[in-house]
Automatic annotation (TrEMBL):
Record protein name field: Aminoglycoside phosphotransferase domain-containing protein
InterPro entries (alphabetical): AGP_Transferase (IPR051678), Aminoglycoside_PTrfase (IPR002575), Kinase-like_dom_sf (IPR011009)
Occurrences of domain Aminoglycoside phosphotransferase (ranges): 69-238
Any Pfam family hit: APH
CDD domains cross-referenced by the UniProt entry: APH_ChoK_like
Organism from which the protein derives: Golovinomyces cichoracearum
Length: 284
């Protein structure tokens, strides 16, 4: 396999991409709202429950420390689909920290009690998730770029390299980045040759993707899905990305891997290619 420095390649690509990356805007950002949010956090943060970068305040309000792009995504999904997501009250940046003030959805993670659900209950959940994914697939992309909702930088801590990366002119450029710049070459291993040929093939336009449809990010009350949360890894991606990212379950979510094919179209070829990529070009 040809020798190259994938870290240098990724850093260079990310630096070049900044030239055309679009910035996400804040939402309902006023001096009064900023003051009230920061004051509430100062008063309540010591006593409030915190979980995964989110502070839960009284009155079914929570504050997530994420990115303006995630807030923009929540607003986009709310405006263009019927997928249940937290309502964003405001978002802003203060002293290099992003604050998303949003609704706390009353529901329980599917991870809690899934094993004890009946087959009928699980089927109802699967059906709702299929409909929600179908709605996302109908969202028309503006360009062929792989990017966040606003055409800007993506985020994913599971990909080898910087957690913030891109955007990319097209899917092939995104794939090249995932491989650390490795190009087709006669000395590549056979499975790597197969991967690159697949990566460099013809692709449909990107589709909007959540990027982490874990049972930890899906909230339900009874048999009704009432919330899809944690959209920080979302964006316009190749059409297989939702499936292969969902298949990469964390140690607290291993049982969910067996549920993926019940609400996402099984893509064995894509999964096989992703496993090759992960083997040679990163843990994920």
């Amino acid at each position: 396999m040809p020798t190259m420095d994938p870290t240098d390649f990724r850093n260079k690509q990310n630096s070049l991409a900044k030239a055309y990356a679009r910035e996400s805007n804040s939402i309902n950002d006023t001096p009064l709202r900023r003051f009230l949010v920061l004051a509430a956090l100062k008063i309540w943060k010591t006593f409030s429950r915190q979980l995964g970068g989110v502070t839960f305040l009284p009155g079914r309000i929570c504050v997530k420390y994420s990115s303006l792009a995630e807030a923009s995504t929540l607003q986009f999904i709310s405006q263009h689909t019927s997928i249940p997501v937290p309502q964003v009250y405001c978002s802003f940046i203060h002293k290099d920290q992003t604050y998303i003030v949003m609704q706390k959805i009353q529901g329980e993670m599917l991870a809690h009690g899934w094993i004890s659900r009946t087959a009928e209950s699980k089927a109802k959940i699967h059906s709702q998730l299929r409909e929600m994914v179908a709605e996302m697939r109908k969202l028309p992309p503006v360009t062929c770029r792989v990017s966040n909702v606003d055409g800007g930088i993506l985020y994913d801590g599971r990909i080898d390299g910087p957690m913030n990366f891109g955007p990319f002119e097209n899917i092939q450029k995104f794939h090249q980045y995932l491989r650390g710049g490795l190009a087709a070459h006669e000395t590549n291993l056979d499975d790597v040759k197969e991967l690159i040929a697949w990566h460099d093939g013809t692709w449909n336009m990107p589709v909007f993707t959540h990027g982490d449809l874990s049972s930890l990010n899906i909230l339900a009350r009874g048999d009704k899905v009432v919330g899809i949360v944690d959209w920080e890894t979302s964006g316009w991606y190749p059409d297989y990305w939702e499936y292969t990212t969902a298949k990469q379950t964390n140690p607290f979510n291993l049982f969910w891997k067996d549920e993926i094919d019940s609400f996402l179209e099984p893509l064995p070829k894509a999964q096989a290619m992703e496993e090759i990529r992960q083997r040679y070009f990163g843990d994920y």
